[in-house]
Amino acid sequence: MGRAYELAEEQLREIAAASDGTVDVEGGARRSSGQFVISLGFDGHERVEDGLRVRARERFLLAVPPTFPYERPSVCTPHRRFAGFPHVQWARSLCLYASSADWRPQDGMYGLIERLDKWIRDAALNRLDPDDAPLHPPVAYATVDRLVIPRTDTPRVRESAWSGFAELRQRHHRTEITGWSQHPQGSLDNQAPALLLHKPLPFEYPESVNSLLRELEGHGVDYVPFVRTFASLANRSRSGTPVLVVLGSPMRRIEPGGPSLQHLAVWEISAADADKLRELDAVWDGDVAASRKAAIEAVVEWSVLANVGWCRVREMRPEVTRRRDHSSPMAWFRGRRVAIWGCGAVGTHVAESVVRAGATHVQLVDKGWVNPGILVRQGFEDADIGNPKVDALSDRLKRVDPDVTVEASVADLIHRMGGGTPIPDVDLVIDCSASPAVRMILEQRLRRIDSRPPIASMSIDSKAATGIATLSKPGHSGGTLDVVRRLKLEACRNSRLARPLEGFWPESLPDDPFQPEPGCSEPTFIGSNADLAGLSARMLNAIARTLSGPDEQHTAIGWFVEEPGPIHCFAWRPDYSAEAHSGRYTVRASPEAVREMRAWARRSVRTAGPSVETGGLIFGEVNEAASVIWISEVDGPPPDSAASDGHFTCGILGTGESAEVRHDRFRGSVECLGSWHTHPRAGPWPSAIDLSTVAQLLDGTESSRRTLVLLILSGDPDSDPLLGAHVFRTKLRPRCVYYIKEDVSETISVEPAPVNPRDVGLALSGGGSRAIAFHLGCFRALNDLGLLARLQVISSVSGGSVIAAMYAYSSESFSDFDDRVVELLRRGLQRDIVRETLRLRAIGKTARAQVLIGAASITRSLTSLSRRGTGLWKTPPVRTFSRSEAFREVLRRSLFRNTLMRDVARDSLETVINATELRTGSAFRFGSRQSGCWRFGRVAAEEAFVADAVAASAAYPVLLPALDREYRFLKKGAATGPTRVLLTDGGVFENLGVSPMEPGREPSISTNVFNPEYIICCDAGAGLFDDDKYPMCWPTRMCRSFLTVFRKVQDATRHRLHRLAEWGDISGFVLSYLGQEDGKLPWAPPELPKRGEVKDYPTDFAAMKRADLDRIALRGEVLTRFLVAYHLPDL
Q: Which domains, from first to last, does the chain contain?
């Protein structure tokens, strides 16, 4: 025993010493066998009528294994008084633990004694099997080497026992119960008598036939006819073979509070005892009394001598078991029909996974054969070499689950699809072929199919470092080719996806592709079985998780899976599709492109009137093999375009550079395909002028593709416009080029923008009038894009707070709001502030405040010098008037009156106006929900005025003193007395206003906590410093130092936004930055005003010239529209 016994004894002695006599370790323990005798006191324990009868002191025998404490000791009683009680085995052994995992080695004897004490006390209260917990089944100790697996749920047993037959199936070295019937069918080799009781049996099943029959008799079962029937059926089996009997009793419960279910035990009668039972059948002769008496005596005699042999039973009935993968994503495959195309590196792993997950029907298609080299990473064995992959994989799947139906086809997928073989009628198709040709022919086939299953695809890159998974649902406009293309565009947009981008779409092909058998094999990737298993499992899980979810808005989902690394998920709505009457093409316009066209149309209505046409260029891709034209993006009118009531002429200024940059950035998947324009008063069909323009363009094109697309958006962009898609092609003849017009595609009805949740947060930075003008442009872009209706919250700082409050606290139309902001900027606030400051009464207030503040400052200085505090002027007097108060009064009188922060005029919109509290250096946030700061608490709602909030937020400390206020706060449920706060510019704390919208903030210690899905941040900062300044003197040195720290704080905020998007805490963000370096944009829109034209505009509130206002606003508008379209195309 050694250390195990010594440790157990030491712990028991410590427990006994500390128990005050409750636990006693008796002497004379047997060290050789590791046994201890202990006794526990149970004085005063509670007991119910049907509970275990426990004496005041009970003795127990503990047997310590040599592996203690890693294995638990066994606990027995020296008596049989507990026999028959649940969880008491062999009449003496107490079952304290449900399984070995329930034992905690670190607790040792301390945990064992605690568990034993609780077990006894629960048993006395009959709570070992409470109704609100799963019911542990009884024990039938296996005494024969037969394994029985019940697979089918039992019949319902009500008020009396159920007698019938279990249907058996022999499989390998086990017997399976596959059904139940009340009438014998065929040989006993395929059936066994079954008796399902309606009352529980003893917790420990009997060991002899006679004991078992007596238990059955106690349950109202006349065992003589039962055994006679059993004997009769035994006669139909071969002599010298054992026979089985299935016995059930309602002694299982799976769900807490659920019904009691049948616990099955299987009784095997040995061959010798079975032969004796067969002989009894000859004694029975109908209803003759003598024969009947002899039969009964024979049964009794036989039952005394015959023993019960209990088989090993491993349950697989759904009603009493839980699958080990029941709540995993792969549970979606249970009972499903799945087609797998391609049975190679990915397909073999996928096929085995879906079968193990419970798929009932699998179709396999592959043309390949197993060769020796692929065994290192594909799910085949040496014996499979030389066989078709589908046949070898089919055999493997049947070994995993013999009940699965596998259809194997040795076929080329391209020939199969091209030959008209229908899409399989299954629950899911998974294309593991990684073949672009298969994706293209599938895309071509799907154009003419109305009903189809979801189609997924999976592939890996050349280093097995990244995987691509796609899912195209039945309602999607395309197949896996469409989704793979969308993933490519996302990878080209997002620098975080550089690894999958280079893995799947490198800028240049490798000079030395890997060939496993150089000279005679196709190039393939490098990767091991472990690489493939890991990537395949993660991709398959992602697909299954999506199929299990309720997302009905998105019809296509794609994933990049990095190994090791994150999973990047993207989801899309279907395109607007128009089928050419000739059947040659399907034109698909993305929702993002249509949204942009509508936005440009709204802008035209806003700036030129409702009848003037507008337009621009369209960009996308033509795939002749798939017969699809994708329209991914559109541009607005180039600067040299001409628009009128009857016609739009698209300019060319800057378009060549834009098209070239797109081609390079999207690696050939986005080209200029044609143009679009509006017909506000006409239908979506080309006019004679449109056709003439198309002819000129086609005649002058140098492209060998010779295809041009014209989109026409007709009607009101805010209602239900129509979209016409028209495709034109040139035809070549000797010495001439002319064009033909493809059949006009069907007209697309563009439904109104869907009603989306308010899931966008808008952050508006500071920057005085420059910020207001820049943010006005941002508002215009969001209005044109239809995104203002999706704003959940506007969080603003300084100058941004002025325009944010003007929008949120008015219910006027956007046009009227726009006019009012322009009027404010043209007039400015500076003159009104000066006028308010110089009013006679204001001058008196200011002078009096300055005198008091100066006197207080002198007093404090003298007190400090004398080192004696008198308490006089310890706190500076409240500044009753200042330039900031004048600013506040101008805002109140001209814009906000006495509006409270809680009285937002825009339905469901929340506001946060950010200031800084100087006494504590904390953020002080005025909000429509709440106002205050974490140091002091929340301000009473009736004291939070919009004018105060805006004035405090915009009180730039270099020019304006802090707003001096006293508020009553509520903190931790208790009201405080008036507390003084000094409020200055919110940009001192954080100039972008993003903080209230960052996820992870704790509402219990923070005010104004929001969690939008998307964040649009508009920053009116100037950006990088110019290098023509030399800040050497003290003022310029201090100014540049302050601005440097300020800029780094903003950089940290931007970095947090990137991290939040990368971690998936937000779905995405856009930073529309006035100081953005134009060369760092993906490409510069031609109409974008240059950074150098706006960055140096002052940040005061002086009146603005119209040209400056328009230039700054246009930069905000163009940047916001461009960046939303590029970075948040699915918004």
A: 3-124 (3.10.110.10), 147-313 (no CATH), 331-507+526-572 (3.40.50.720), 576-749 (3.40.140.10), 760-1116 (3.40.1090)
